Amino acid sequence: MQNYRELIVWQKSHEFVIDTYKTLSSFPKEEAFNLVSQLKRASTSIPANIAEGSGRFTQKDFASYLQIALG
């Protein structure tokens, strides 16, 4: 098991989430429950999958979670 916070891919994906949230704050309020909600969930799932995969015990499992994050 490795510390996911040390992975460059997790660090970059975390920065992406922060940037996404900043950008979405300027979207119109009528989009809050549609487009904004979907974009927040999609961007947040990337580092979440990387973190979850890093806790797996095999490289094959970790690679599978990276594929999910890529999707």
Give a structural overview.
The chain has three helices and no strands. It is elongated and about 45 Å long. The chain has 71 residues and is mostly helical. The protein has one domain: de novo design (two linked rop proteins) (Up-down Bundle).
Quick structural gist:
It contains three helices and no strands. The chain is mainly alpha-helical.
Which sheet architecture does the biggest sheet show? Answer: none
Assembly type of the chains comes to single chain
CATH topology: the name is: de novo design (two linked rop proteins)
Number of strands: 0
- Classify the secondary structure makeup into a structural class: mainly alpha
CATH architecture: Up-down Bundle
CATH superfamily: 23S rRNA-intervening sequence
The number of domains is 1
Shape: elongated
The total of helices stands at: 3
Helix content class: 55-70%
What's the CATH class, please?
Answer: Mainly Alpha
Write the layout of secondary structure elements.
Elements: H1 8-24, H2 35-54, H3 59-70
Keywords for this structure?
single chain; 71 residues; mainly alpha; de novo design (two linked rop proteins); 3 helices; elongated
